[in-house]
Amino acid sequence: MLGMCRGRRKFFIASFAILFIPALTWLYLSAGNFQVKSLPLSPLESQTATLSGGGLRERLALEMRVREVEEENRALRRELAQPPRAAPRHGRHGNQSRTYSTEEGTGDSEGQRAASNNSECVPHPPVDKCETIHVAIVCAGYNASRDVVTLVKSVLFHRRNPLHFHFITDSIAQRILASLFDTWMVPAVRVDFYDADELKSEVSWIPNKHYSGIYGLMKLVLTKTLPSSLQRVIVLDTDITFATDIAELWAVFHKFKGQQVLGLVENQSDWYLGNLWKNHRPWPALGRGFNTGVILLLLDRLRKLKWEQMWRLTAERELMSMLSTSLADQDIFNAVIKQNPFLVYQLPCFWNVQLSDHTRSEKCYKDVSDLKVIHWNSPKKLRVKNKHVEFFRNLYLTFLEYDGNLLRRELFGCPSEADHNSENLQKTLSELDEDDPCYEFRRERFTVHRTHLYFLHYEYEPADDHTDVTLVAQLSMDRLQMLEAICKHWEGPISLALYLSDAEAQQFLRYAQGSEVLMSRSNVGYHIVYKEGQFYPVNLLRNVAMKQVNTPYMFLSDIDFLPMYGLYEYLRKSVVQLDMVNTKKALVVPAFETLRYRLSYPKSKAELLSQLDMGTLFTFRYHVWTKGHAPTNFAKWRTATTPYRVQWEADFEPYVMVRRDSPEYDRRFVGFGWNKVAHIMELDAQEYEFVVLPNAYMIHMPHAPSFDITKFRSNKQYRVCLKTLKEEFQQNMSRRYGFAALKYMTAENNS
């Protein structure tokens, strides 16, 4: 305070001298012109005036005095241009509280604040329209991979610039996010991945109590991880939501001065003040400390400052007394800043509005337009206590349920890197005839559906005996109620593809998290294929589920079938019994159906035959589509005690267990009709043997007709297009398999 007063007094004296003395000089000069006798300026001048007896001598003396005054003014200006000496600071133990200006991070003296205010008047160059903005995110595991999508959506929604995402991930997150971005196909977005497992040795020596675990320390090594050519990057936590264009934050880099290399927002809780509870002892920090949910990093300068050595030495020293970190990398960042406050540029707090309990976040905004970035940095996430939490929650849910397909917007006027997948897709679509009555069917075959693999936690290692089997199925929202029943009937691994909108995906998430049955199973992989187009892409869904199978064998089922109790173990025994390793076989599980919503599920084959005789059960689709399962030979199955082989026939579509490397389903068939028939035909063309299992069965449960079967029955053009696609498929089979495939066309003509 004393230094501030002295500075103001010096400023006032200098201003007075600069303004008053030139005015006084002008008066003296004027007096000479009007021949008004002036007072002598000095005894010497008085003597000279009397000796000369003229006004000339007085004017010469006055001009000398003016030059002296001007020299004094120049000296004063030079002194003002230099920052005043800082008042001596007294060392104190614990965290020091400093006053920061709104925009600057380290200015704690009046002179620095004045310089800062002057710099604000200098126009900073805006972010170029086509300048790429770099964003780094540490993401590990299934849950974080799901959460980060909302952050990405919020950034894409507001952005006007090309984006380059740098994801530091474990193998799980990389698999999920790589597939997501490949199928999302957002223009002017590039994604790179860096293996977090390779970085573990860099930070594993630091004990960390934070729920983020070892991955919560990865931001410390970004200077070493990211490309050496990358000069600056915005680092974000996965629980961030943007409410503005990220280019506004990128533009803040232009305000960094001197040795400022870190852009951070002050921590809005009292954590680093050490007064939250008795004996609370946080890591050292400058005042309230800084939150690392949003960081601006000048990577090139950090490398020159030997950042790696700086944070390591600080962490080693503090761990001798603190023993472990409580807030992961944030503790170490703050300890470094405490020692080197010149490194930090304090961002306005609206760039990281922290919604944890008992924060000062409400002081960061007065209106909705003030909000820039929302940070759900409490373990409670959306259940956090905040005066305006309902508004923040609704903003978050808007992006959570926002249709990601709408974010595939072109950035016009900006050259983008060649995306060969996108170019090939556009070329293929352009070759289709839009006047073709079956154009929409043909187009669906090439539609790229955004896909999020492993939407929920998955953990399963196949059995060591190489007999393990995964149940494969697909479903939409109207079949969700079947999941619990299937999990009760099948204890083995399951791979499911769900066709949902973004909003429905969140409904499914809430349903699954509220189900004890589903939450007790970690061996069920849920893969979301997001809705696009007017058809149900049934075979694409099956292929997505098949590709995620990690067992040697897979049982290709449908969601509305309940397998018999114990089918999982029975199929594994059949693998050995029928030498599936060395032969190409498709094991047929006979299919039945009931018209009763409440069924006493048969516990054995004998009980099933009894219900079949009583009319409680029927062979599947015997009254509407007999040909589909007739080759199974149910009459023989009734008395069979050993597996028996059956021949392929036209329209045969059994449910089978096959090896994982079996052919995929043909994507041209969408909605209802011929989707399984074509696959079984392909298996037969590849010389698979169809073997019926004598003690296996599955039962179809009743449900309302699907929308696609309704379209098939009511729309003549739908049926015409399906027939056209079927004929084209048979022609393709003939070209691929030659003479052996002629039987498929012959059988079709005879049926």
Automatic annotation (TrEMBL):
<dbReference type="InterPro" id="IPR051292">
    <property type="entry name" value="Xyl/GlcA_transferase"/>
</dbReference>
<keyword id="KW-0472">Membrane</keyword>
<dbReference type="GO" id="GO:0000139">
    <property type="term" value="C:Golgi membrane"/>
</dbReference>
<comment type="similarity">
    <text>In the N-terminal section; belongs to the glycosyltransferase 8 family.</text>
</comment>
<dbReference type="Pfam" id="PF01501">
    <property type="entry name" value="Glyco_transf_8"/>
</dbReference>
<feature type="region of interest" description="Disordered">
    <location>
        <begin position="78"/>
        <end position="121"/>
    </location>
</feature>
<dbReference type="InterPro" id="IPR002495">
    <property type="entry name" value="Glyco_trans_8"/>
</dbReference>
<feature type="transmembrane region" description="Helical">
    <location>
        <begin position="12"/>
        <end position="29"/>
    </location>
</feature>
<keyword id="KW-0808">Transferase</keyword>
<dbReference type="GO" id="GO:0035269">
    <property type="term" value="P:protein O-linked glycosylation via mannose"/>
</dbReference>
<dbReference type="GO" id="GO:0042285">
    <property type="term" value="F:xylosyltransferase activity"/>
</dbReference>
<keyword id="KW-0325">Glycoprotein</keyword>
<dbReference type="GO" id="GO:0015020">
    <property type="term" value="F:glucuronosyltransferase activity"/>
</dbReference>
<protein>
    <submittedName>
        <fullName>LARGE xylosyl- and glucuronyltransferase 1</fullName>
    </submittedName>
</protein>
<dbReference type="Pfam" id="PF13896">
    <property type="entry name" value="Glyco_transf_49"/>
</dbReference>
<comment type="similarity">
    <text>In the C-terminal section; belongs to the glycosyltransferase 49 family.</text>
</comment>
<keyword id="KW-1133">Transmembrane helix</keyword>
<keyword id="KW-0511">Multifunctional enzyme</keyword>
<dbReference type="InterPro" id="IPR029044">
    <property type="entry name" value="Nucleotide-diphossugar_trans"/>
</dbReference>
<keyword id="KW-0735">Signal-anchor</keyword>
<comment type="pathway">
    <text>Protein modification; protein glycosylation.</text>
</comment>
<keyword id="KW-0333">Golgi apparatus</keyword>
<keyword id="KW-0812">Transmembrane</keyword>
<keyword id="KW-0328">Glycosyltransferase</keyword>
